[in-house]
Amino acid sequence: MKIVSVRFKPCSKLYDFDTNGLELKPDDHVVVETEMGLSIGKVIIGPRDVEDPSSYLKEGQQALKKILRIATEEDLQQREKNKEVEKEAYDFCLERIRHRNLPMKLICTEATLDKKRIIFYFTADGRIDFRELVKDLAAKFKTRIEMRQIGVRDGAKALGGIGVCGMKEVCCRTFLVNFAPISIKMAKKQELALNPGKLSGLCGRLMCCLSYEYEEGMEGSEEFMLIEDRE
Q: Model-level pTM?
């Protein structure tokens, strides 16, 4: 079997798919069936032969999903048209959130390629009863509505922005695929001022970059390891 690794959003996780006999190469846009519905992704890692496809399966997955087709010009045009639907859905949902005074922050919306589902991503401090909101959205858009609560770090990744260090774009938007655990101990080990305002990123959480030099200090430093062990 030949498989490829596909990415759906900038700096997001890679997902493996069966090439389904298609001649594919990196940067090709492909149409696949995901858990949410039809989506367009980009091939990041090209075809490779796999003797044991089961080693690439997620827990509970029976078989690798297949690439349906290479994205056509019509598919790409439809994706652009969907952006208008997503903007309309975002604006309407935001208005209904304010109308119903719900304690949640809408991050972004996403419509599947066939528009059979619209996903609304939001952050909140706790659980939200959004049943009436879903009724409003379903009545407006006549399609399946899905609400997904995400963490504030994922919210920052989705929205992007200028880093507090002055970088043009935050790390989570440019190259960080996964979020590593960050602790205040990392700042202490680097003898940084324990000022929350200076150690927090756009998301309000400790900056991911605190782990960069901390990890370097952990590697190859016997003295550092001895100090760490005594704590």
A: 0.83
